[in-house]
Amino acid sequence: MVDVPATAGVLGVRLPLVQAGMGGVTGPALAAAVAEAGALGTVALYRFDPMTAAELVRRTAVNTSATFGVNVIPEVAGATLPAQIASVLDAADRRLVINVYGLPPAWLIPRVHDAGHTVLVQVGSASDAERAAADGADVLALQGVEAGGHHLGDQPVAELLAEVLDRGVPVPVLAAGGIQRADQVAEHLRAGASGCLCGTAFVVAAEATAHPDYQAAIVEADDDATTVTDRFAIGWPGRRHRVLRSGVTQAAEPPAGRFVAWTTVTGRRLPVPCGSAAVPTVETQGRIAEMARYAGTGSRWVTAVQPAAEIVSRLTGLADTSPPIARIGSTP
């Protein structure tokens, strides 16, 4: 059982665990299931238009009475971000956690706070952690290079956590990157984190919308299964990313000029070019192994596709019958 910091509630969850927002694979079903299990489930907006964003929030809310999160990516959403945020806040029927990938624009945190909601900012360096805290973030997620997906920095998570804590950043911090076991969660808590943010662990949740072949590849992953590359930059340039190794990542030259799959997004059937940042979902047909299969170094410890509630229980070391425990919160 993890030793949870006895701190005041900020995220409004029982357990020291946050499910990362991963566009394409973390929809309302997964977010609601994680929330019902006592952790913070997160629905991902990615590039969705405001109407779709609001619908995702409403669909999540119907399936859980708990607090949940909404993930936004300013550098990808671009000019759509203000409308995304407005639609989410208008659709909210409870306090939400707006989970922001990277430093947000100056207007975002005050706008969310004025509406009565909480802001979690993901960062990849101690300097960005200090800036986000100074800008008013309620909680920070410190992303280490072990993490699957797009990277915000280049430090191991334990090193980044120690540096941020040494600088005295005055808000709760979560460790993120390569976390698949309860003993890892407990170790980060002992080191001073208020909880952990996990992504790959929930790609293999039964409620996720990741393609079955993608999930199976994570289950079958060995110690050397992932690599950091820049091969999947179409649609999200400028960020290196950790993915499962494939013919695309290991080729001498980046493959280009061909389509590898078809997928459906908000009812539209779209071709997927080789090098696209899009993940393979249950709607995807084609050469799944040639797509961006984001996965962290902890993939080697994944043994099966499981319901989200079982993943939460495994990561926290708590049985479903455990009594409520302290919430992720502010510094004592």
Automatic annotation (TrEMBL):
InterPro entries hit by this protein: Aldolase_TIM, NMO
Pfam family, one: NMO
Keyword set includes Secreted: no
MF terms in GO: dioxygenase activity
Keywords: Dioxygenase, Flavoprotein, FMN, Oxidoreductase
Gene3D superfamilies, A to Z: Aldolase class I
Protein's UniProt name: 2-nitropropane dioxygenase
Organism annotation: Micromonospora lutea
